[in-house]
Design brief:
Largest sheet: 12 strands, mixed
CATH superfamily: Vaccinia Virus protein VP39
Structural class: alpha/beta
Helix content: 25-40%
Order of helices and strands: EEEEEHHHEHEHEEHEHHEHHE
Number of domains: 1
Strand content: 15-25%
Low-confidence stretches: none
CATH architecture: 3-Layer(aba) Sandwich
CATH class: Alpha Beta
């Protein structure tokens, strides 16, 4: 069963998002205060709230609104059990987690920061492959983090929870690996967000994001490869050439695995109700992903960025 880590026990790993990036301290009144700007942050249901909604830009505010859930029993059950939504969805996600887990094996980490963690589904999947002792989950949405407790309730893991904006990462500790699973493409510019993480000097950064290539660009021009998501955001895609350039400038090594994801609604229309056709189509996608990964040619990228000189 998941064990909650109280925010006062991991404050030393974080800093305030003010220009001074000052330490955060716990007060006797059950609040968290920045030592520089004196801003006060609340702790509700063991979730440290570092996001000031009034300071978010319009696009980020729209993203937050699209990922704010009603905390009814029905909504919590639905969002806490995403692994039961679709066998097809679970299959594609497994194709991402296998290389991601292999990258994490290189670090031998027992703790991670999971930014843009949503309702914790990815952490649940990852915990089946990795021996994680503690995960510090963060998301823009307080309600998503609240549901995380139910998603992870059957897993023997320690969980710390705090709201944060990926564009303004509040993590002070540079040693604990950072994982962002399909969260960077919800920022205004994922390449700017990635570069800021590199400037901050975190030793190990892992992320999974939609990737761009000439085929995807052609399909996008036809209106077949890019959609407006439920949050109202039209997500961007990772440009691997830009990523390699950023890593070179900021002294990072990169390891990348690419895969292909075929939209589920297209999959259902193509395969109809035939179980055999569906199985063969999944095998075809897996084979195509394995072959094109040799050229780093896919529409999803699983990335590990390692600060040069480490390990």
């Amino acid at each position: 069963m998941a064990t909650i880590v109280h925010p006062k026990d991991f404050l030393h790993l974080l800093h305030c998002s003010c220009p001074a990036h000052a330490p955060l301290v716990w007060t006797e009144y059950g609040k968290v205060v920045c030592q520089s700007c004196n801003k006060v942050f609340s702790v509700t249901e063991n979730i440290l709230e570092l996001v000031d909604i009034s300071l978010l830009d319009a696009e980020t505010t729209r993203e937050l609104k699209g990922n704010t859930y009603t905390l009814s029993d029905e909504s919590i059950r639905k969002m806490a059990n995403k692994d039961s939504w679709s066998d097809y969805y679970s299959h594609l996600q497994k194709g991402n987690f296998i290389p991601l887990s292999r990258y994490l094996d290189r670090v031998h980490c027992s703790q991670i920061f999971a930014l843009a963690a949503g309702t914790g589904y990815e952490i649940k999947c990852l915990s089946a492959m990795q021996q994680l002792d503690t995960v510090f989950c963060s998301d823009l949405s307080y309600s998503a983090l609240y549901i995380t407790l139910f998603t992870l309730q059957s897993i023997d893991i320690k969980v710390g929870l705090f709201t944060s904006n990926v564009d303004d990462c509040p993590i002070e500790n540079k040693e604990i690996p950072i994982l962002i699973y399909e969260g960077l493409h919800h920022t205004c510019d994922m390449h700017v967000a990635i570069e800021q993480l590199l400037i901050n000097g975190y030793k190990h950064i892992f992320f999974v994001e939609p990737a761009d290539n000439f085929l995807i660009k052609w399909l996008a021009r036809k209106g077949l490869a890019q959609r407006v998501e439920y949050s109202g955001v039209k997500p961007g895609r990772l440009d691997l050439k830009k990523l390699y350039s950023l890593c070179k400038v900021h002294g990072y090594k990169s390891s990348v695995t690419t895969t292909w994801h075929f939209p589920e609604d297209y999959f259902r229309k193509f395969c109809r109700s035939s179980g055999l056709v569906q199985s063969l189509f999944l095998l075809l996608i897996d084979a195509f992903s394995a072959a094109t990964n040799l050229l780093k040619f896919g529409n999803v990228a699983i990335c590990y960025l390692q600060r040069d000189g480490e390990l």
